[in-house]
Fold these 2 entries.
Entry 1:
Amino acid sequence: MGFWSFLIIFCFLSFYIHWYGTTKALKINEDITKGSKLPSLPSYYGTYSLLWLLLPSSIILICWFFFKPYIIDIFLKESIPLNLVDNFKGNPSMLIDTIKATNPEKIFPGTNPLIIDSAAYYQTLTTNSDSYVFLLVLVVGLISSLVSLRKVSTFFRARQAVEKANINLLIFCSVIAIITTIGIVFSLIFEAVRFFERVPFFDFLFGLAWSPQTAIREDQIASQGSFGAIPIFTGTLLITLVAMAVAIPVGLLSAIYLAEYARPTVRKTFKPILEILAGVPTVVYGFFAAITVGPFLKDFVSSLGLSMASESALAAGGVMGIMIIPFISSLSDDVITSVPTSLRDGSYAMGATKSETIKKVILPAALPGIVGAILLAISRAIGETMIVVMAAGIAANLTANPLEAVTTVTVQIVTLLVGDQEFDSAKTLAAFALGITLFFVTLLLNLYALKIVQKYRERYE
Amino acid sequence: MSKNTELISKSLEKRHRSEKRFRFFGILGIGTAVIFLITILSSIFVEGKGAFKSTFIQLEINFDQEIIDPNKTNNPEEFKFANYKLLINDALKNYFPEVKDRKTFRDLSVFISSAAEQNLMKLAMENIEIIGESKKIWLLASSTIDVIHKNPQMENFLEEDRLINNIQMSWFNALKKNGDIKFGLNTNFLSNADSTEPEQAGILGSMLGSFFTLLVTLLLCFPVAVASGVFLEELAPKNKFTDFIEININNLAAVPSIIFGLLGLAIFLNVMHLPRSAPIVGGMVLALMTLPTIIISTRASLKAVPPSIREAAIGLGATKFQAVTHHVLPQSMPGILTGTIIGMSQALGESAPLLMIGMVAFIVDIPGSLTDSATVLPVQIYLWKSTAARGFVELTAAGIMVLLTFLVIMNSVAVFVRQKFEKKW
């Protein structure tokens, strides 16, 4: 049974079960001439039996989706003839990969016929197993829904049962957010621990040299790569500083102007225009930084008589700053407009000009909120990937000069993990150690910033 | 006039000047931001507008039967095995009879793209009567010639900086003088997948990849997000557990996107052994990433429905669950849909997590299902940007133009839905 035919039969079955449950309830209602009728509306009985169709089938399908590779591997391992295992050069898992990679219709000349047989068996196994599972789903679902229909009687409150099931479903959907967080934390910690088994924790955190090479052969000279992350952290910090130097003045000044000076029509046109900057995908900024800003800055700086790397921190950070502008401006705008009017009026009544009111009264009052906005923007800048991948360097230089090329945490994660990877080397595991550092730093920044903003809101509400 | 008034009126001028200065700074801030936006968009337009046309060269092709159909079968299926490169080479030799030795001829043969051979084959197979005749045909030029044709100032560059040598330049000028070189519409760009040759590379493959990925994202994310938004806003009791869920959602919204990529790599690929580079895995990762966005907008639009609606429903005997599903949820649907479209447009522009799960592979085939290897629009842009060949720069910018067009369309639909259907209470 193919997927589409299964889907059609399944939909048809669902409609039929719902209709059957409803009509059954209607019929019972008709038969009851004395006393009270069924306690719930007839369609709830239909929905109840439908739930008993959907629940077991979705459980089976989800389990199958996640465990299919394992189950098929077990069957495949059992089917492999013994003499093939003995004759194969390499470990058994490689043999299984070879079998999976072999296409029985397009064979390389000289392939072992036993491997071809196994590959053909593997292909039939994958397609047949799907059909068996689909059949199983239909049978189990049908049986459980038919059994559930036996409960239809005046003693059974179907609405309560249906609503309870639905609310449990909603709770399950809400819990997915928690599951995701747990998944992130555990997958990162699990791989990072494996990394710290090879590289000591403090060497990673405080080491000054980063060159993630690992040996191909064990006797190789200089086989131990060094995993000191300080140059990466300073690089991230440098680029973030450059970004903030662009974003904070521009974002804050625009927010002040839009909130305090601009006429409503001006505000209405310019606020969305600023927000377009937030909607532009980051690859676009990356392209802009690498193709337009980088060369332009390089020409400009060399005309001043200085030398500059073509993948400088200045270009990447500056363009990242442009991306961050709308975050700072829209958050600060909210904060400034929520400062109570009474504070403004008091200041005007004392004879202050508008700019004096803003500088001396509104900004100090709004400061916690603005700091929160800036912290959120910093966390955004630290985690930003595409701009730095496209416009910043790969080599880890320990420098504070924005004209030189530096690298960031995200760039390193991408360069370590894109391409061929084997999961036992310290090189790939280092990416997860960097990932967990990134996760916790941004998490702390976010929690702290959200707390500040929350407190600020409570003060004026 | 008292001394104080004098002092004040003296300082007033200074204070007003400072007021004006401050106001000017505000305008400067907005102006800078707007100028940045205009610069970005216009630089992309300037870089990318050339990619929609490509260069064609007209040559007199002799459809020699000896080459196309040596066995004289007249069966179009047999034409597939012919070497059409020979036809093009003969035509080039006829056009430039002065080229005699093989080394110089190699410089000449790079003028025509290898895609032209395919076109000739198709032409011969469809018009069998053309065999044995000569015909003037426009052939797709190679990317190098295309770059020279689009940037006429390159003729004055030094030979080393120009991509082609002086002899090639003279051939190019000869073609130009005879009117045998022209611009045509670049049909490859919208109908092909990626290629190593810039003039043959197209965006259709990654567009379909994006489509499949977003389809998975939408199917997974929308029901879950709406369900969780409804639960948290309408039905959840206020306790530590629901508070914890809320904190989690707010934090997930701010987690860097690349972390979701690491999650996908560690769990979906390494633990569950789902296929690498497949839209289904990409869609799952993006769904986890977009979930908080849609939950937050669902909650906001549920909050906007006035409590009187709920009270009326409950007063008429509906249960809380019925009041929500029959009345509150339908009323807040426009807001939820707007939030969903905005979340989807974010997912469309996202690329960092997809790099982690292998959607950066070089893929020549157009994907046809959820488990085929594929790439998506922003990742295709990244791939083209990282390619060294000169012709890919304008393709990158053109790819960005396509991506931005989709984003503009999605966001206008969102604005339209909001303005047309959203109720003001």
Entry 2:
Amino acid sequence: MNIRKDPLLDSLLEEVLGGCRPPDLAEKILSAHAEKAHAENSASPGANENGAARPFADSPLVVAPRQVVRSAETLGLERRKALSWPFGAAAMVVAGVLLLWSVQAIRQTPEIRHLAQTPPNTEAVRVPGGDNKPSGDQNNDGAPSPASVGVSSATGRIARETEPDGGVAEHGGENNSEEPGKNSEEPGKGLGDPPPFATPPRSHPPQVAASPPQTQAAPQKDATIIAAIDRQLAAAWKENSITPAPKTNHDAWLRRVFLRVLGRIPSVEEHQRFVSAPPGEIVDALLQDDQYIEQFAQNWTSIWTNVLIGRSGGMEPNTLGSRAGLQQYLRRSFQHNRPFDEMAYDLLSASSGGRSSSNNSSNDSASSSEGDSNGATNFLLISMNERYELITSRAARVFLGRQLQCVKCHDHPFNEWKQHQFWELNAFFRQMHTVVDAKSGMAQLEDRDFIGESRQPEEADVFYDQLNGVRKVAYPVFFSGETIGQSGLIDEVQRRNRLGRFVAESKELPQAVVNRLWAHFLGRGFTTPVDDMGPHKPPSHPALLSLLAEQFAAHDFDFKQLVRWIVLSDAFSRSSEITSGNKNDAPEREKMPLFSRYYLRQMQPEELYDSLYTAAGAARPPGGYQAWEREKIAWLDQFTYNLQTDEGDEITLFDGAAPQALMMMNGDLMRKMTSIEPDVHLGGVIRNTERFEKKVENLYLAALTRAPHRVEMLAAQQLLAAERGNTANTLQDLWWALLNSNEFILDH
Amino acid sequence: MKAAAKSDNTTFDPAKLVHEHQAGVWRYLRALGCEASLADDITQETFLAVLQKPFDDYQPAASAAYLRRVAHNLFISHQRRSGKVLAVENIEEIAQTWSRWVGEDNGEELLVSLRNCLEQLSDRARLALEMRFKQSSSRASISDALAITEHGAKNLMQRAKKQLRLCIEGKLQ
């Protein structure tokens, strides 16, 4: 590109004066599009002949290894390219040659080589002409030597992990066929509904969950924790002279708790069942009753899939991973209430089998030897890109609550994150390797020796460029400064396993999960956004965040326990009403949230979809969970667009704008839900023999989880009169209006 | 159901989308600083990326904005991959100016405005720009033709372009 001073005006002048007109590219584009579509239809791993996403296990995945599958030769080529392009000017080329020469010289000199083998935070490769700061210089606070780091700081679990074979046999304390992440079904049959759920096998393999964060607190009783939440929020209200909103009524609370916990509103029958039940009993039922365990798992699978890979992740035709495979793993994990630190470990360290994390851990659910059945690998497969940048930033956001994507290119201008931190985290993923199984045609994830960008596996380094053109190296260093040495040989260190341990034992993990869940239930997190935590963004209630994070860890990362604390808190039971006493609690005006009222928000599209099905009592499509998911994804697809950025950014049109309004008014889904056929709720109500007022009440309960007010009943009667007594027409119009009302679509 | 009786069953037409928006995307990329050949490539990439799944082309302005955003991101990715240094604030400023200058068409109105503004320039300024952009003349040739120094030719063209910007901005108000 020619760097012009005024490209905008110059380009226009070139067109007006120079005749440089836009070419007609339509034919090229459309023929390329047609070819691509044809190729995808015939060989796409993600779509069957109907265009629907194909289950992971039976996908004849014919995916050419992408750039992420990098051989040693490729690495060398990339390195040569990478070393040459930044130095356009001759002087810089010379500097690059000097850099190579000096790196080689360092390695060939025993004394200096010894120095280079020390951790990067004490002595990294020095760059001639650069600022000669080691990449890990920010962490130079007395980190242990490579021989001791990672092991000495870890528990006996990690020590066992690093022992050959035997130690890892202990690792699989959860060695049973019902184990999440370990599918006993054969590849290709792994995505059907799981076997009927009996009793959640709640086990805690000490190898994974036993090591709590350093700030381990004693587990407290639920009532004590809930009282502490209430106390801390009340203190903040008092300090800010806020009078909280009054308590919401039971019906509204019931609707709210169903929506937040199960992702849908309650049905009329469920309203009747719980109409006089105390909150604790309702929450227990939603979290523990067999009737709801599968729904709970499906809802949280949907939520965490979106958190991990977005709404469009795994949907691209040539993606290596399978969204359905990831969902299978998550669903089983939530069914069994798998401790969240174990899930984090799984998602970061999973392999399809063979070498790497699974070769020493045949019983490790995270690394099932059943190859493709390990759905957790799909998070990694979907998030892999050229230099493992996407998985790095996603891992930091989701599991550590840190946004590092900006520091990929430069130190963050406004907070404390540094560029080397991104690449040091990135270095943990460099042993990751994808291969396409020739027999099954499926992508598999495994770890292999990483030879480093300098092609020295004992010092397997990652290069990154600073904005000033200085090239620096990075070795694996965890966020908190812990290191694991520089070797890329998997016989010496399995980098992702170590990362999984670091994350599972970090204090950031419980904080990140608590913050995200708090925002899910209360409408705002302790920080906004929830995944941008750190000293630059102090939480609104630091003591409360710490308390919940500590207790979450102390209760073995029991996800349902955390849910229970939050939904039984006082804040969750407050009305959404803005009063003169709480009008200053206004996070929408960039003020610190005080949670003195329940913050209004629109349902998420998945919640709306499930709620419409519940309200309308419509039968789900045959084919079980996968068929249901496919139909829902196809519906969601109309609202979600991937912006094709390196970070997989998406935009959603489910924001109250025209597409959403049109869908709600005239869409196929709404037409189905407002049908008067006997197999949907409205049809049944019209056909029953109850009097008109009871029918109206039934529709209000189905849509809004409350009986109609007097004026609403009067309006319904007037409508009936206007329709000259035609009950069916009247009820259909009323039903359509209820489903299109703000009250229906808002979580209030 | 009266309200739900009608459904928009209009099928999406990729050809229509491409025909309607290709020139706008291409011009936008050129405005960001792409050479013509690169603009050709990224325009194609943009549509192929967007056409990967059904596109809800419900409003031309919204579609144009979405296409521009995808093109913008692909351009930045391309620059990063090829190791080019990007001054992001400049790119964003150009993008904002483009959005302000170009209405809902593909930039045709803007070109009409520019032609009108060119007519308002002095003969010497217009000649300098024509030599520069029509004949790709060097600054030395322009200075010879106008009997001024090269520095004077540079200043003349800079002033002319500034005048054109003001003129275009004025026509927008």
